């Protein structure tokens, strides 16, 4: 078993994600929980640890505020409900932190803000870096008021993972309403046992997580496991813990074992490689042979035309594409030096033949290794 205490001792920047089922009660926002959370976050700031908060709760808060019995099915009503709830959510945080003279900033994002272009991604990152340099707490949520399916993160578990990677944070703490990942749903199964550590996210872990749904929010345990896979593959640890437990953040940073600790990969990826591998949305796909797959996975090589078997999609130069092997398993994501049309003409050919087939050869590599992120072989399809 790894020593999670060592990881926490080294933390200088942390992303804390808190779920709607932690923040809300029968009468709307649970101010006791919010006040406790704010006190703990302020203490971390005073100890020199930068904190970024990814907070759910807007839709749940809005539903209580408006007086709806359940979350409506119609998208405009959900978005209006989120708008009402977000105002109350950020006001609750602002009031709670005012007693510590701590300023907060509201950041509302869509997937397009991070994956749409490298420039927008860097702009968002620079804004967050500036806020942290001012000792201001960024409070991030998905912009539910304007989001549509095409630009949706999916849930705040995924958003928190992307923010962790973007900001080069040292750890992600995901606070929910149960004590961590259990062998079964502890709310319905008395024999469920807490899994204190996960070193490999395999099919059995996915099976367990799939049987533990969420409550008020959209993200159940499976979405948390998918977030853990993203950050741990990039070399960042994650913890799932109970956000309703008093002083949970203080306990974790003291080295006490709480929740489920996900052990990270040994090598930490650069921010750029994280963006390529986990944030951008592929515009097409490239299937490669076993030799090319081995060269990329085991030897850290670039992708050459000779190893390409097939092309899917219609993409241009510089587009992100997904690379799969002969078993249709996701191997990597990279930025291509050739368009889909050009690749169809040069697939399988030797590098020295590219100019003959295209009339020009700007690059030897189809995807240079610096623009290529190898994925966890168990990453979701």
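Sequence proposed for the structure above (381 residues):
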């Amino acid at each position: 078993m790894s020593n999670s205490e060592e990881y926490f001792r080294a933390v200088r920047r942390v992303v804390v994600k808190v779920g709607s089922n932690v923040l809300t009660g029968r009468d709307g926002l649970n101010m006791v929980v919010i006040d406790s959370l704010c006190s703990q976050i302020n203490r971390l700031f005073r100890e020199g640890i930068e904190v970024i908060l990814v907070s759910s709760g807007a839709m749940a808060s809005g539903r209580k505020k408006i007086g709806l019995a359940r979350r409506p099915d119609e998208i405009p009503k959900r978005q209006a409900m989120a708008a009402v709830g977000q105002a109350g959510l950020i006001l609750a945080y602002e009031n709670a932190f005012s007693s510590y003279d701590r300023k907060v900033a509201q950041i509302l994002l869509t997937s397009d803000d991070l994956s749409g272009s490298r420039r927008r991604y860097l702009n968002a990152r620079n804004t967050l870096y500036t806020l942290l340099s001012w000792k201001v707490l960024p409070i991030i949520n998905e912009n539910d008021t304007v989001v549509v399916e095409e630009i949706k993160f999916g849930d705040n578990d995924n958003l928190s993972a992307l923010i962790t990677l973007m900001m080069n944070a040292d750890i992600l703490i995901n606070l929910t309403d149960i004590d961590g990942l259990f062998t079964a749903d502890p709310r319905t199964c008395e024999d469920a046992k807490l899994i204190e550590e996960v070193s490999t996210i395999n099919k059995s872990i996915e099976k367990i997580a799939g049987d533990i749904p969420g409550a008020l929010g959209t993200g159940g345990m499976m979405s948390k496991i998918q977030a853990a896979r993203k950050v741990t593959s990039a070399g960042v640890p994650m913890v799932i813990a109970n956000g309703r437990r008093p002083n949970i953040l203080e306990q974790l940073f003291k080295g006490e074992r709480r929740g489920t600790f996900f052990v990270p990969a040994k090598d930490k990826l650069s921010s750029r490689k994280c963006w390529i591998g986990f944030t951008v949305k592929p515009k097409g796909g490239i299937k490669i042979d076993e030799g090319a797959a081995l060269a990329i996975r085991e030897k850290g090589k670039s992708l050459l035309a000779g190893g390409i078997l097939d092309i899917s999609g219609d993409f241009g130069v510089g587009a992100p594409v997904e690379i799969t092997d002969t078993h249709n398993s996701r191997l990597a994501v990279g930025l291509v030096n050739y368009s889909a049309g050009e690749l169809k003409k040069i697939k399988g050919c030797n590098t020295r033949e590219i100019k003959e087939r295209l009339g020009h050869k700007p690059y030897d590599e189809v995807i240079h290794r610096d623009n290529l992120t190898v994925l966890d072989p168990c990453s979701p399809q």
